[in-house]
Amino acid sequence: MSQNHTETLVNNVKRVCDPNPNPSFGRDSHVQQVAPGRHPASACKIKTDETSRTATCNVRTLHQKGKLENVVKEMERMKLNILGLAEVRWTKAGSMKLGSKTLIYSGGHTLERGVGILFDVTMAKSLGSWCPISDRIV
Fold first, then answer.
1. Which of 55, 57, 107, 124 is the Cys-Cys partner for 119 at CB 3.0 to 4.6 Å?
2. What percent of the chain has pLDDT over 90?
3. 15 located within any domain
4. What's the pTM?
5. Under DSSP, is residue 122 helix (H, G, I), strand (E, B) or coil?
């Protein structure tokens, strides 16, 4: 594999110039980046002509009895497809089904902070896999 490169001096600094510019200098092939555990051919696709409604909410805590059910009712009332949740205040990370909704969440070691995402049926089908990063990032 031979490539023709020319060296030029710019401000007395040697620089390599590629006569045929590529997106990534020195590589002939590229791999498409996708989320962990997902393959582009097997990932579900959302129809592009459909609109989706997304919102975020600081729930202050989901540790109180009945609070999660109220959040789900509000999501249905506002006809949201995806609802991002802040200050969930649950420990560890996980997912659960709530009727037709799917909740994924990520928390810490104590009942502080934590985030979650609530999906409706159509958006949950598009979720292939997910990875909890911290109590602030899913």
1. 124
2. 45
3. no
4. 0.64
5. helix
